[in-house]
Automatic annotation (TrEMBL):
Protein name, per record: MOSC domain-containing protein
PROSITE patterns reported in the protein's UniProt record: MOSC
InterPro entries, A to Z: MoCF_Sase_C (IPR005302), MOSC_domain (IPR052716), Pyrv_Knase-like_insert_dom_sf (IPR011037)
Residue ranges of every copy of the MOSC domain listed in the record: 24-173
Length: 185
């Protein structure tokens, strides 16, 4: 193991076979190594997000799996937004693990088999405001230096496949130091 670990749990798993904003909660999902979530529109070795395909359809898919922390949904509820698991397009909703503070290259062990390597931060787009007006501003913030803080989760690639279910453990294995902070991917 390469250093400290942190623990959390899977709160929900979601997928959608068609391109759209939200995903549908499932009793389980199967992660496929090098591809993403089986049956999800964003699974594939090359980019699947429509805006990325329009730029260059041959670039590698560094956004195979989208993970959000459940605490964000609670924060949004406190601001008057009604956001349920899958509504923000995430494949895996976690609890108890601060995804946004993980360094690039962190390996998330989901359940008994699956491993996802974190590639970066999700860059929220205007579709969020189309889903609920004002939501885009709520998932963006500013740090103490005025820098933009993206709170809409992290993206990753599947290193090892496996089935992931709500209630499964999530263990974060940090990469060797020096750690690189997450950037938009």
């Amino acid at each position: 193991m390469n250093g400290p670990t942190w623990m959390g749990a899977v709160a929900a798993v979601n997928l959608s076979p068609v391109h759209g904003f939200s995903k549908v909660p499932q009793p389980q999902v199967r992660l496929l190594a090098g591809l993403g979530v089986k049956g999800d529109a964003h699974a594939g070795r090359t980019v699947r997000h429509r805006s990325r395909v329009a730029q260059n359809p041959d670039q590698p898919n560094r956004r195979q799996v989208h993970l959000i922390h459940a605490e964000l949904l609670e924060e949004l509820a406190g601001q008057g937004f009604a956001v349920r698991p899958g509504d923000l397009g995430e494949n895996v909703l976690t609890r108890g693990l601060d995804l946004l503070t993980l360094p690039t290259g962190t390996r998330l062990h989901l359940g008994g088999e699956a491993v996802v390597e974190v590639t970066g931060l999700r860059n929220p787009c205007g579709q969020i405001d189309a889903f609920q007006p004002g939501l885009l501003a709520a998932v963006l913030g500013r740090d103490e230096h005025g820098g933009l803080v993206r709170k809409a989760g992290v993206m990753g690639v599947v290193l090892t496949g496996g089935v992931v279910r709500p209630g499964d453990s999530v263990r974060a294995e940090l990469p060797p130091e020096p750690h690189r902070p997450l950037e938009r991917v």
